[in-house]
Amino acid sequence: MSEARDEIFAQVRAAISKNLDATLESSQSRFAEAKNRINDHPVNLVPARGRLGKKARVDLFIREAERVNATVVRVSGLSLVPREVVKFLTNNNLPMLLKVSPETSEKRIAWKNQTLLKVSEGRADGKDFSSFSLAYAGVAETGTLVVLSGRKSPTTLNFLPPCQICMVYASHILGSYEEVWARLRDSSKNDGSNVFLPRNVNWITGPSRTADIEQTILLGAHGPQRLHVVIIDD
Fold first, then answer.
1. φ, ψ for residue 97 (rounded to 5)?
2. Which residue has the higher pLDDT, 221 or 111?
3. 95-98 long-range CB contacts below 8 Å, 24 or more apart?
4. Closest Cα partner for 129 from 157, 149, 155, 152?
5. Average pLDDT of 192-221?
6. CA 13, CA 102: separation in Å to the nearest integer?
7. Which residues pair with 230 in a beta bridge?
8. Nearest CA-CA partner of 73 in 166, 203, 153
9. DSSP letters along 97-109, please?
């Protein structure tokens, strides 16, 4: 009886070992395939309107952003940003209150130079009137801003305040969506990280809108009613 039992257990162990080896080999193969696809990602067909020089990309971005009801202004450096923000809030009769992301705080932008403006740093809590953040990139062919989530860039700033002000460097305005993903992958390779994606990658094209009711466009339905873009000519 003992010999028969030992033989049965031996056969079970052999079958389990064989299945584990096969599963491990299959998992390693799938992992290698996925890693190769990330490192050597095939490029989709990019329309000609996205294959432009820097000046043409910025000009197209401005036209497309304004076409979807965003407002756009260009400044020559970070020192001019606070004055432009105050000008925008004044022209739109908005409170001089601004919630900024940690990466655009006083350490980087001299907000204190505008004494009428009250600036606080951190996440939006639903009580803020206007937010200010930095876009990772812009997409010329659609006038889209790409904003990444993270400790220095809280996602709530992009959705809760009724007015969103977002700055983007002119050199970060790319032609197409594909170029943005490629830049994210390159960033991962350069910093040695195994993961190139943050928790959220938000693509913002103009203010929030809907046409659910009688096919009439309504701004501010699911997010900010106003979107103001500040382009930094770096």
1. -125, 135
2. 111
3. 95/129, 95/130, 97/128, 97/129, 97/130, 98/130, 98/131, 98/132, 98/165
4. 157
5. 71
6. 56
7. 73, 167
8. 166
9. EEEE-GGGSTTTS
